[in-house]
Amino acid sequence: MKNGIGYHNVGDLFDSFMLVKAATKGVASNGKPFLTLVLSDTSGEIEAKLWDATPEDEELFHAEQLVKVMGEINQFRGRSQLKIHSIRQAQPTDGVQVADFIEKAPVDKEELMGRLTEIIFDMKNPNLQRIVRYFVKKYQDELGVYPAATKNHHEYVSGLLYHVVSMLNIAKELKNLYPEINKDLLYAGIILHDLGKMKELSGISAPTYTLEGKLLGHIPMMVEEIGRAAEELQIIGEEVTILQHMVLSHHGKAEWGSPKPPLVREAEILHLIDLIDAKMNMLNRTLAKVKPGEFTERMFAMDNRSFYKPTFDE
Amino acid sequence: MKNGIGYHNVGDLFDSFMLVKAATKGVASNGKPFLTLVLSDTSGEIEAKLWDATPEDEELFHAEQLVKVMGEINQFRGRSQLKIHSIRQAQPTDGVQVADFIEKAPVDKEELMGRLTEIIFDMKNPNLQRIVRYFVKKYQDELGVYPAATKNHHEYVSGLLYHVVSMLNIAKELKNLYPEINKDLLYAGIILHDLGKMKELSGISAPTYTLEGKLLGHIPMMVEEIGRAAEELQIIGEEVTILQHMVLSHHGKAEWGSPKPPLVREAEILHLIDLIDAKMNMLNRTLAKVKPGEFTERMFAMDNRSFYKPTFDE
Amino acid sequence: MKNGIGYHNVGDLFDSFMLVKAATKGVASNGKPFLTLVLSDTSGEIEAKLWDATPEDEELFHAEQLVKVMGEINQFRGRSQLKIHSIRQAQPTDGVQVADFIEKAPVDKEELMGRLTEIIFDMKNPNLQRIVRYFVKKYQDELGVYPAATKNHHEYVSGLLYHVVSMLNIAKELKNLYPEINKDLLYAGIILHDLGKMKELSGISAPTYTLEGKLLGHIPMMVEEIGRAAEELQIIGEEVTILQHMVLSHHGKAEWGSPKPPLVREAEILHLIDLIDAKMNMLNRTLAKVKPGEFTERMFAMDNRSFYKPTFDE
Amino acid sequence: MKNGIGYHNVGDLFDSFMLVKAATKGVASNGKPFLTLVLSDTSGEIEAKLWDATPEDEELFHAEQLVKVMGEINQFRGRSQLKIHSIRQAQPTDGVQVADFIEKAPVDKEELMGRLTEIIFDMKNPNLQRIVRYFVKKYQDELGVYPAATKNHHEYVSGLLYHVVSMLNIAKELKNLYPEINKDLLYAGIILHDLGKMKELSGISAPTYTLEGKLLGHIPMMVEEIGRAAEELQIIGEEVTILQHMVLSHHGKAEWGSPKPPLVREAEILHLIDLIDAKMNMLNRTLAKVKPGEFTERMFAMDNRSFYKPTFDE
Amino acid sequence: MKNGIGYHNVGDLFDSFMLVKAATKGVASNGKPFLTLVLSDTSGEIEAKLWDATPEDEELFHAEQLVKVMGEINQFRGRSQLKIHSIRQAQPTDGVQVADFIEKAPVDKEELMGRLTEIIFDMKNPNLQRIVRYFVKKYQDELGVYPAATKNHHEYVSGLLYHVVSMLNIAKELKNLYPEINKDLLYAGIILHDLGKMKELSGISAPTYTLEGKLLGHIPMMVEEIGRAAEELQIIGEEVTILQHMVLSHHGKAEWGSPKPPLVREAEILHLIDLIDAKMNMLNRTLAKVKPGEFTERMFAMDNRSFYKPTFDE
Amino acid sequence: MKNGIGYHNVGDLFDSFMLVKAATKGVASNGKPFLTLVLSDTSGEIEAKLWDATPEDEELFHAEQLVKVMGEINQFRGRSQLKIHSIRQAQPTDGVQVADFIEKAPVDKEELMGRLTEIIFDMKNPNLQRIVRYFVKKYQDELGVYPAATKNHHEYVSGLLYHVVSMLNIAKELKNLYPEINKDLLYAGIILHDLGKMKELSGISAPTYTLEGKLLGHIPMMVEEIGRAAEELQIIGEEVTILQHMVLSHHGKAEWGSPKPPLVREAEILHLIDLIDAKMNMLNRTLAKVKPGEFTERMFAMDNRSFYKPTFDE
To answer: What's this model's pTM, rounded to 2 decimal places?
Structure first.
């Protein structure tokens, strides 16, 4: 969708349907109320100001509402901002649907689920396989649709599953190159490492952090869940502790949220695969928005670096 | 017991019963075997070299054996070392017992348990009280005797319970000074905060770290235990999450092992009380070994500082 | 005073007397002058914009003036801001006084002074007692009214004395629990530790930093004062150096302003008591402004954390 | 070679041929000279003391000499040490060769070179391909045999080429998973990234750092070489600067020796692939020396961690 | 030029010619376009807003245009801002020239060049002297006019040469005080240390970073240039490596951009002289703008410190 | 004195008079007592072991005793050690004196004092001059002989004064290059900055830290002394506070012992001059002990770097 908001530049006129992600009331320096809208389509989002907003405007333009908007893209304090010329609610006759405006993983959830099932089917260690199956079943509804995060990487519908499957693909290739890897352990660790996000994040569209998410975080919550699952499945064995360790250590360092660093080979490689897939996801999506010879905007989760897109090809 | 090994100086002769804590075989630069013994009584421990050790010596002088030793205290690379003049196994007729050579908390475990019971009895919030009672019952055998650590502070028999009771005493006084504190929550957090040590450490005398202790640590293990206990007790309510947060955050910072910092008033105060009691325990025991006008040895767990003991009184 | 500005929310109308703490002139994007006022009562403060300000407005609404203001509380860049509907100077007939709008310690300065006198009376070490008495006498006018800081904790009238007395109360309880503490030394350290603030800060209402405060800081200034006092009182003895060390080290670490870390037991405990009282003061006052189930605003001096207020009671 | 020195434990007798890597003279506490020998075979190395060494011993047992040694493995200050019972120079009739005692990459240099040639053949961008060919030709003698480092990872004959080929294999798989990657750029970066080591290290057996290596380091030296090569080949184009950037940034951060962090997608992925291959090489070789259920020795280049080898299989 | 923009205060009227350094279009909250101009003279620069800008305004007021402007200096978010009352393009009849509005070094470039020539003439080591001469010749056009940076210190015409000559003067005096210094090596290092800036920065007026500057930085570029120059001049000898090391290490630490720290006496002293001259340049120019008894604005490149100007004289 | 111990290498025989700096008794692994002696002359010091020491040996060879020693220089754990062949007390007839074995500054104390007096005579600001004179008079006996430190730099007789005079020489040259410097303030700051060392260190030969030195440090002690001196001299004026600030801030950063960083131009330059002179003193003395083409030993106070001495001349 190369004609979405993410592909427009400052100075462009813009005329399209968009989804209101957030609407906040403010008062301008002239004393009149205005609305700050965050408008999105699958290519990105933009802030827009609706000046001199009436009480009716406030009712019409709220979060999760589709709108038809026309305006011009300006720059404000170094960020794009849409100056609204006109705006109206979308009508049934417009034939647009909310689902078309929410970013999704580039692969269907059915295909991702199929790939996940294959991988699990290939596992040979029964303890690991049973624990993994338990969780895939437990979260069968959410797993196909949850995002992997609220921002930065894979922050879209099916993002979590897409991230897991990408990591499994890398893991499979690394197993070929380094046969010492315990494949089942690595696969199980990858599949479970971020499942705690389903308790940490409030939902799929516009997710926020739950109270448990804020006070405990997805890592300790998932460590606890694995312990309980093993008890329920009556699995006793080192696999349980090692799997808990894989989840616990996958952020790599205490200051990044892992009270123990990786102390098992597969835990170390899980951490590295997670890094690669998260970084490639961020880099590819951000570089897609600039032209060869340009630098991207600064990327907060990449140490605030701005990346260059070379002008030559393979 | 001012006449124990901890109160002797370099140059002193020493002639007493001691407990062998560890015995390691080595080969001297002249090619002859020797034994490195760690000998202890309740006042401290010292390394000793038994040169030209025979195979019989190796059998006689092993860990957990009581011995009668005579020797001279020398200095070696800045640490005290006992030069053995003579050594023999203790005999039944000597009338000495292993228990007399292991350091214990300065208060009886019965008295500590009594104080703990009183405190729990005073709690009014039924959810918190029930969870606390569940764990005191579950660990009734170990709780009275476990150490709080393998070294640094409260590393002796009943050290964990003594630490908990000292913290509860501080908490009670702070509640008087700052009535906004939720006393039940603070008490419950103090009682549970280190119970995971009973799974992290292998036992009471000469404890080491278990596999779970090394790969997971006492904090996530205890968070998991609280979750399971609440399920078993069918307690639903914010108390469970907040208690888990109290345990999770009690080291204060991510780099000190708490993936979340304290985000509840009582979690912050729990962290501070833990600091005070651990530091006072270390300082008082270390300062007891030096005379007024002297500096202590460097204390690793106090940022490697060496403390001064003033020469004047109150 | 639950109806002060600190207890209102965005959207509320507000109509009350307030004290102008600061007034700054600006020019709006339409080229017209405006005033940015900081208005306060004992519950907190709020920024307010007076648009299209006339030269008369500038004269009427200056720092330390009481005003009657009516307006609506809006949100601007994530902070509350008062949109002024009307504003006028307070009149003698309004019956309001500046003193009623400045925050004070929750305990009377006479009562605090009484408590301080008792504590000093109990001291037995004559050198420590004489030095402490010297300073209480020297600063008898300021000690009862000075704030402990310009912001963060105890930043109100009598804040310094209130902080000292709270710390003395904690110290007394800790002495009971850890009898090894030299009570007189700890008391003297607590009483003197922050007295340098009376030279570091310019005064009581709206304090700023003096030139000495900026270039030297309250810690070295107080170390110097103790040295001079000892000379004047002809006190010779280790107490002088140790007291200077208590003040010097009370921030705990070089990077926090203490060129030497605590190297005496009572210096370490003084640092910890200071931490507890400062943190409890900040936490209690900030948590008082949110409802159960809410998080506070981010607290800069608490590592920018936002604290949660649980929904359950003791 | 499971019967090499790397597979013996403390207490074992050992009787085999070994290569002297270093020999240093010392004087024992009894005033007699001794030799400290570092003895190695392809499985590892061990320190050995030859007490009461004669001047003849000093002549016989020097670096790069093969010896027949019999002795017992002891522990000294936590490290293994060989107590020599007898030692003699190897004789021609013993039929042993130095080359059999130097560790080599697990794949032949011819096979590695073949794989490298294939990869270069597949490159399409002529500028990148020509620069890469230039260097492979320039270093054709050393490239097949140089180690990648003096210690930690790939520190053996052909280690550099083996590391490069492993990285190319990973790169190829990642290109399949993330087609946005510019394969030629990534390949060229991988092939060149560590070639400066051939100027930084003094040679193949027992390499040390050259003066240039110590004062400049392999990274700036290789950046310079690429610039000169491009001039010689009369290549003008962004490829040259980007390739220099790939080499410059491949350590990832300034504090790790890269004055610029990766600012191009392929530079970031090069850094990550380098990390993975170095870590897997270290982990696999270290874990090969312990049994399931054991922890490895502390690994300095892995943040001093000790890794656990689980007891269960796939 | 004490009457430049750098010497005016908030509230002052200002009426003078200025150079437009940058002009950016924006849209005000009332929907109308405006121009943000950065206006400068040799004493400093100021931001100015031209509200309700017409398309003609946009054409007239662009970068590198001289203008006559009248307005009032206001404060906006803590920074000075010029409120424009009137503005027009400068006319030929106004008799003003762009060169008069660009800050220059306080010493003529001819004089600086003369001093540099003298110093080089005094060098005795032929290898060092030839390399230095090579570069002075190569960059003879740029060397006299380039700035030393885009901001912070010596960021004006001839700034680089002025910085080099100041450093040479300090070096000469230190050689007198510490005769062990190798003067020729230190001189050569000073002259070459920042020459890479001529490739890193795009030009003289309003310089920005080149692609090479962003991806490689001036340090590795200059190291490469020295290597090539030595090759061209057929100089072989340790001088080349040491000179490259001087340039490479002159930022002092890896985290400041030097992959190797100074490892040669003259490299260490070069780093210190660079620090002194950069800091004195910043301090003297910033302090010149405040009166005795005042603090300067915060200086970002001096760890964000604000410096005090004492009220007393020598 | 190129034939001192500092100029000998491992393997050399050594036969000369030396001063015993320290003597410690130990017990060898064969159970016999030995003495560890630290022997010194003006070129350096070396550790020596006297095996099988008799009680008479202990009496003869104590600190501050001159001895005639013959032996061989060996290497032990990477450091030189003297293996004693024979040793005896020096006799009156040997004609050697303790003073000849203590390192001194390379310039006479009378010459240094003369230079200091000149500088003070040149000062024009009466307040600064009077304070400086007060201290030079107060410490007239110690100032000429004290070391500047116990190790690292200027750690010899008259080291403090030599350091001060070197710094004054640099200051004078910098004043010529940067006339904005307030010379009197800088001179006064240099002269006073380290005078607190005379209370921090116990004496001239083999100095240790005093109790005040350990608990307060030379910086706060000197700040206090300046305050008292000003009071005694009845000097009121900003000079006093600024001078105290100069001393307080001269270590540059809080973590290096300065609770306030330099906030006055002359304080910043004082810090830089201190750095230069300390570093040049360490570098010159350490480099004097190696030959061209060699690296020095690691220098702890230079971030543990090992410096290279180039092989070419000016």
So the answer is: 0.88
